[in-house]
Structures are given as structure tokens and as C-alpha cells.
Amino acid sequence: MPVMPLGLDPSLCFINGDWVPSTGGAHAALINPSDGSTLCDIARGTDEDIDRAVTAASEALRSEWGKATAAERGRVLAKIGHGMLQHIDELAQLEAMDVGKPLKQARADVVALARYMEFYAGACDKVHGETIPYLDGYTVYTLREPHGVTGHIIPWNYPMQIIGRSVGAALAMGNAAVLKPAEEACLTALAFAEIARAAGLPRGALNVVPGLGAEAGAALTRHSGVNHVSFTGSVGVGKLIQETTARNVVPVTLELGGKSPQLVFDDADIDAALPFLVNAGVQNAGQTCSAASRILVQRGAYDRVVAEMGKRYDAFRVGPAMDDLDVGPLISARQKAIVEGYLAQGDGLEVAGRGKIVANAPSGGAYVAPVLYAGVCPDHVLAQEEIFGPVQVIIPFETEQEALEIANGTQYGLVAAVWSQNGGRQMRLAKQLRAGQVFLNNYGAGGGVELPFGGTGLSGHGREKGFEALYGFSTLKTIAAYHM
Ligand code: ADP
């Protein structure tokens, strides 16, 4: 049993400001991916729990939370961010144990969540409407209003960061949130709720119902009292959620991953690029929506990039999260089997580098050694499908046009990067690449809480992060006054 901050009981749900058992009384085991042991039992939320949570959120909108001014909301969010940082050590340990990510990455996630809360705390009272010049005798203006009850279904790979960008922005706009964390990793979502309660977030403004996707998750997406759903996860479940929410004509934000490319041209600063090329593939064991799983390299730089990336791969050490090595385990035995299935399809490809699993890694852990493939055809399954594991492919190209066609040649469109000193090429590609974010001579821009994020195609639609998210978590009202 992990040490929970603030003496939390991880088997409970957080509904209407109270810690309560699930009405069904059932539990699910939370597995430690570093060794396969059971960390603890979590609540297995039911339709009834979701209904209680949605009712509590609706009531919150009619009482203290709904009446709070934007400045008051901001003050509470700032306190939540502060509370996260006060508990940074416990939260980082919790996330590392639960997700399997090395401790230093988990620590960075706590800081990121705190930063989201700071950003949205400051943004609450800066969302202005407009006045619109109109016919004689009219004064017309617009108001940004909350959707109402927002449902948040999040995955297991970056629970804290995704809570920050989604729940943070929703609360900033004055919505009341119901959060369904992933069954594989939900401890920091529970800790977030307790820290929010201690920071003075009024009851019902945030509710957390852990449980299975097909049970609590599905119940949340079909509940008629939910006015907006934001989902981060797999394409298959994203499609299902879009279909379900369509029945209630409820808007959705979907962030469904990608097959993001980094384009490396002959004139690039290769030394500067190398750490970004490899880290964007193996960070969080490759279980990152915006992982750069495709590296496209122009012929003149190709041999050097393959050799240098390969060296770095050979040096990667994989082991338990708490040992804080380069790479931790995957989230589960199931995810390991999926990734190994893809690796089997790489038979016959050139392996340019491969990490090592340390000798003391427990046999029950979901470990996969990172693999770098070179000389891969753009239409190979490993160059087309999202693997969600520590696997990258290097694809050679000759011309800018060819690079663009390869880069845009998947069904995804989340993130892309261009490494080149040529300003004209940077601008051309920034426009033509099919992606929600394009990075020029960097990758990820250090996380970018301030930078709108989201995709196109199978990567989903809608934007989270940055100020833009506040528009997604609100609806616009136009008011026309006639005063002749
Ligand atoms: P992964 O395959 O990477 O685990 P999923 O898309 O299955 O990703 O899961 C992401 C989130 O979606 C989790 O919180 C999960 O419980 C939830 N989920 C899974 N299936 C459904 C569903 N049918 N309806 C609503 N939520 C779901």
C-alpha cells in the first residue's frame, strides 16, 4: 500500500466534497507496473456514483461555486497549485509507483500540474467578451459562460498533467467537473481532489469517480446532466465517446494520440537535435500522445543521425520507477503484449540501437527495452500505427517535398518538428505540416502549459492548454440591446 498524502483512503470516491464508498461496493486492483504486485484497491464506480457526482456538480453551479467571482475562482486554483508543490515528494512517489515512470519524470509532472493551476488561476478574470458595432439603436456584446457540468475522462500516462490542462481550464471558466481517472493509474487524481478540498474548493465543484472505462466512463459520457466531455485516450474509445455524446448533442474535446514526425535536414544542427530526437521517443517509455515516433532524416545527415541515435539507445537503462533510471516499465502486462506484438512485426528491419533492462528488474514488471529501427519504409506498419511504447523508426528522404509527403502520410496530425537552419523552409513546412503544433529547431517547447495543444485527423479535435482552452470550456452568448 503506497503512502497516500494527507492520509487518503484510495478505495473511496470523492463526491460532493466527501470521501464516500462506491454504491456498488466493488473494487478493482491497482497494479504496480514495476513488479506486477497489487498496490491497493480502488473504487469501481457505478452508474449511480456517476449520477451522484453529476447531481453534486449541478448543485455546486447553483450555490457557492456558481456564485463565485472569476477572481475568487482564481484564488482557489492558485491555492491548489501551491498545495501540489507542498506535497511534491509524496505526489511524485505516488505517480512513479502508479504509472511506472522514473521518479524525476513524475516530479516534473507535479510541477507541470502546479503550473497549470497557476496559469489558469491568473487567466480566470481575463476572459473578456466583445462589443460588436451594429445597427443604429443597438448595443451588442458577448459573454463567455461555462458549459455547466463537464466530464473529464483521462488516461494513465500523464494523469497529473492532463488533470491540470483539462480540469484546471474547466474550473477556471466556472464549470463544475466530474473526473473519471484511468483504472490503471488514479492515485494522484484522488490526491488532487483532497488538495483541492483543503484549498477551499467548494463542495461539488470537483468530483472524482474512479472505475472502469466501460462502467464509470461510459456512464459519464451518456449522462444527460453532463454538458461537455473532454477525453484523452485511444482512437477507438474516442470514437465511441463521440458517438455516445452525440445522442445528448454534447460538445466533446478529443485528444487521441499520434504518429508525430521530426524532420531532420542536412543543414540542421545535429548536436542540438539529438537529445530531442531520442527523448521524444522514449520519455515515459514512449507512452506519450505527442511521442516523436517517426524520425525523417535527409540523406546527407542520415548516417550520422542513425549512428548517434543508436549509441544513445544502446546506453538506455530500463528498470523500476523508483530506481529513477532512463526508462521505466510500461503501464501493464497488456500494454507490454501490444508493444511486443509490434516489435514482432519489426523482424527483418535494421536495428540501429537497443536499450537494456537492468538485471535487478523484477520479473513481474512490464519491461520492454527501447528499440530504434533504421531504414524503415514510410508505409511499414511500425511507421504508420501508434505503438505507445519505446520504439522509434528512422525514415530516410531526399527532398523537402518528399519529407512533407511522408510526414503528412499517416491518419494522425498531432505534433511535428523541423530541424533546419533555412528560414524559408521552416516557414513553408510550418504551414504545410498537418499537425496541431509545429516546433522549429526544438521539440515540445519544454511542455508549454501556455501553448494550445490538440490535433487533427485521428489525433482528435478541440484544443486544450493555454488560453485557448478557456474558449473550449465555455460557450458564447450574444446580447443585443435595443434602446431607441
Ligand atoms: P488505453 O487503451 O491507452 O488504456 P483508453 O482509451 O482505453 O486508453 O482509456 C482512456 C480512458 O478512457 C480511461 O480512463 C478509460 O477508463 C476510459 N474508457 C475506456 N473505455 C471507455 C468507454 N467505453 N467509455 C468511456 N470511457 C472509457
Structural description of this entry:
The protein has 484 residues and is an alpha/beta fold. The chain has two domains: 5-256 and 461-478, Aldehyde Dehydrogenase, Chain A, domain 1 (3-Layer(aba) Sandwich), CATH 3.40.605.10; 261-458, 3-Layer(aba) Sandwich (Aldehyde Dehydrogenase, Chain A, domain 2). The protein is 39% helix and 20% strand. It has helices spanning 47-62, 64-67, 70-86, 88-99, 103-123, 159-172, 187-198, 213-222, 235-247, 270-282, 299-315, 333-344, 381-384, 400-407, 423-432, 468-472, and strands at residues 13-15, 18-20, 27-31, 38-43, 131-132, 138-146, 149-153, 176-180, 206-208, 228-232, 252-255, 261-264, 294-298, 317-318, 350-354, 356-357, 371-374, 391-397, 415-419, 437-440, 460-461, 474-482. The strands form six sheets. The chain has a seven-stranded mixed beta sheet with strand order 15-17-18-13-12-19-20, with helices on both faces. A hairpin with a 6-residue loop joins strand 3 and strand 4. Helix 3 crosses helix 7 (187-198), helix 5 packs parallel to helix 6 (159-172) and helix 10 crosses helix 11. The longest helix has 21 residues, at 103-123. The chain is globular and about 70 Å long. 54% of the residues are buried. Adenosine-5'-diphosphate (ADP) binds next to helix 8 and helix 9. Residues 153-155, 180, 182-183, 213-214, 217-218, 221, 233-234, 237, 240-241 line the site of adenosine-5'-diphosphate.
